[in-house]
Amino acid sequence: MGFKEGFLWGGATAANQYEGGWNEGGKGLSAADMMSNGTHTTPRQITRTLEEGLYYPNHKASDFYHRYKEDIALMAEMGFKTFRMSIAWTRIFPKGNETEPNEEGLKFYDNVFDELHKYGIEPLVTISHYEMPFYLTENYDSWVSREVIDMFVRYCEVIFNRYKDKVTYWLTFNEINCGTMPMGNYLSLGILNEGTRDFTKQIDIPQLRFQALHHQFIASAKAVQLGHSINPEFKIGCMIAYMQNYPYTCHPQDVLKCQKLKEMGNFYCGDVQVRGEYPYFAKRYWEENDIHVKMEPGDEEILKNGTVDFYSFSYYMSNCVSHDPNLEGTAGNLMGGVKNPYLESSDWGWQIDPDGLRYTLNELYARYQIPLMVVENGLGAFDKVESDGSIHDEYRIDYLRKHIRCMEEAVNDGVDLIGYTPWGCIDLVSASTGEMGKRYGFVYVDSDDLGNGTFDRSRKDSFYWYKKVIESNGKDLD
Predict the structure, then answer these.
(1) Could you state, in order of their start, the residue ranges of all structural domains in the chain?
(2) What is the predicted pLDDT for the residue at 359?
(3) Distance between CA 453 and CA 277 in Å, rounded?
(4) Exposed site from 168, 189, 233, 335, fewest CB < 10 Å?
């Protein structure tokens, strides 16, 4: 069997981590623009104003804003069928609450989409990817305010109408389930609670977080309905950071704790966006955590009528779960867990688990029975540039090869998988640490963690390998 004809091979980026041009073309400040750089041992800082002496890596990022033609040509050389990117809300509405959009920002994305179509590459556009307009954060407490829903829908209306003949595939919110976790306060929901500037230790108020998440659900559902009314051919999906967890042992408490963690981490948001209603376990969670989600009349109907067409997700690693607090921990995407003794780890301590992707795809398809897309997957690693300029990243090829093989097994299991876009196909800034040195790409960007370098692009060994993968529709993985 294998991958179906027309399978959407490509790569993924986000405007705030890749685009740059933070103060050009009429763009406003986003929440991401207010985060300083960090490392895997030093957390990023969130500042209320741009402070001298701090470096803000998202400002220049990978400089796609000035190099989009060069980068898209490299994607075309690899044979991309699709390119997952995001539109920066602040490039269209600099503050987020304006009534008239910024034409220069709209024109930039016109140019990007035209360049992609020149090479036959289908855009896959995330509407909101971790870059809330900072004005809304300061003046509305971001998604805590129900007023922001209408602002987001106005933004969607503008881009849906402008690009209705250029974009078919849309995602409403990136990793929306980040809002179920304390890290989601600022990163995903744009909530700037009083307290520490440390990105990893923000003061958490679950009531605010889950109310804000409800507003995102309503905004997403309204966007789906609006998009379908503007162009019935639109395919609009959700995007979940999938946290694959296993019980550490067969102890019933490990199994139960793992089940509850997966319910809230993976299924809480997916159920709302795919099934159109909160899952059965939400009520008890709210009661036990003193959360009172305020719903307006008609909200339930909005959710039911605004379900997505497909389910997309990120998958990087897996963790174990135990009721024993003394076991060795490990890092991961958005959340860590207990170290799995059967798995190896990346340079950043994320456990590498290709079989977990097959398990995840089957788990998701059994639950939702709609098309799936893996829109983030990859290995963050230190890359070494040799004296001749070559970059031998066999470790990345090995990671991707094993995950693609497991995707094919899931397809053969009967899963309807329609696309695969590895994360950071061209090197970009890390969302969690602000580093450039944590590289995912097939293309190397000559920039260090402080933005020093030429920003010139060069092909890694994985570039040529992935080109063969796409040419063979996933058959040639050697």
Answers:
(1) 8-471
(2) 98
(3) 49
(4) 233
Return d(Cα 241, Cα 223) in angstroms, integer. Answer: 20
Judging by beta carbons within 10 Å of its beta carbon (0-12, 13-18, 19+), is residue 178 exposed, middle or buried?
buried
If DSSP codes are grouped into helix, strand and coil, which group holds residue 258? helix
Mean pLDDT of 225-230: 98
Residue 175 is among the residues annotated as catalytic for this protein: yes
Q: How far is CA 348 from CA 51, 272, 432, 471, in A?
A: 28, 32, 11, 31
Return the H-helix or E-strand segment holding 443: strand 443-445
Spot the catalytic one: 175, 363, 408, 435.
175
Contact 227, 167 (CB under 8 A): no
For residue 406, the SS3 value is: helix
Q: Is pTM beyond 0.90 here?
A: yes
Query: Where is 173: in which H helix or E strand?
Result: strand 169-173
- Find the helix or strand (DSSP H, E) in which 360 lies: helix 354-368
State the CATH architecture for 8-471. Answer: Alpha-Beta Barrel (3.20)
313 neighbors 364 (Cβ within 8 angstroms) = yes
The pLDDT of 286-312, averaged and rounded, is 98
376 catalytic? Reply is yes
- Residue 340 · residue 318 · CB < 8 Å: yes
- Residue 207's pLDDT band, with cuts at 50, 70 and 90, is very high
Name the catalytic one among 122, 131, 376, 408: 376
Quote the DSSP letter at residue 266: I
Q: Which of 466, 382, 441 is nearest to 17 (CA)?
A: 441
Element (H, E) at 312: strand 310-314
* SS3 assignment, position 207: helix
The pLDDT tens digits of the residues spanning 13-60 come to 999 999 999 999 999 999 999 999 987 778 899 999 999 999 999 999
